[in-house]
Write a structure and sequence with these properties.
5 helices; Ribosomal Protein L9, domain 2; 202 residues; alpha+beta; RNA-binding; coiled coil; rRNA binding; ribosomal protein; Ribosomal Protein L9, domain 1
């Protein structure tokens, strides 16, 4: 069936594109959801008159995708999972899990745009997740898959390091205060001695 897309459809096309799809796909999904209309002279003429407005929207989407790509490329997500001692996962990493982490980081990305090679993520480690943005624009987000035990150990080590640094800073502060107090005492003693010497001379 020949249709005209009324909105962007992942892996099919963008608003205003004319496509030939299977009848079932058109009747069961594209037409009922309003994602497309049947191609005919009337609909073709309507979309031709909207061509400038559609292109303007596409330009805005391209600019938005470029900006989003820059932010996502610099992003690192950490996914907490249940894993065995060897690092083997109990289960698999899904696009839903990545979508949830992206949302926590402030990015609203449709799940169908997130490509996770679940068959290749079987162990804890660092991976790359492909995110389709707009047209041929896509981003690779760094994904650290870590076990809950690893993260707890890391958090504990960080807390201990922070406590040690704070204790060291406090000790240095106390030592500085003590040195200052000694200096003040020495100054007072010297001043008193000077006064006594002056009185004796008189």
């Amino acid at each position: 069936m020949k249709i005209i897309l009324t909105q962007d459809v992942v892996n099919l096309g963008e608003e205003g594109d004319v496509r030939v799809v299977k009848n079932g796909y058109a009747r069961n999904y594209l037409l009922p959801t309003g994602a497309a209309v049947i191609y005919n002279k009337t609909n073709a003429a309507i979309f031709a008159s909207r061509a400038a407005a559609i292109e303007k929207r596409k330009e805005a989407k391209r600019a938005e995708a470029a900006s989003l790509k820059e932010k996502l490329d610099a992003l690192t997500l950490t996914l907490k999972v249940t894993a065995g001692e060897s690092g083997k996962l109990f289960g698999s990493v899904t696009s839903q899990m990545v979508q949830d982490e992206l949302k926590k980081a402030g990015f609203e990305i449709e799940r169908k745009k997130i490509e996770v090679a679940t068959h290749s993520i079987k162990m804890t480690g660092t991976y790359s997740v492909l995110i389709h943005l707009y047209e041929n624009e896509s981003s690779h987000v760094k994904l650290i898959v870590a076990s809950e035990a690893e993260l707890k150990a890391k958090e504990k080590a960080e807390a201990e390091a922070k406590a040690a640094a704070e204790a060291e800073a406090k000790a240095a502060e106390e030592a500085a205060a003590e040195a200052e107090a000694v200096t003040e005492t020495e100054t007072e003693v010297e001043a008193e001695a000077a006064v006594e010497t002056a009185e004796e001379e008189n």
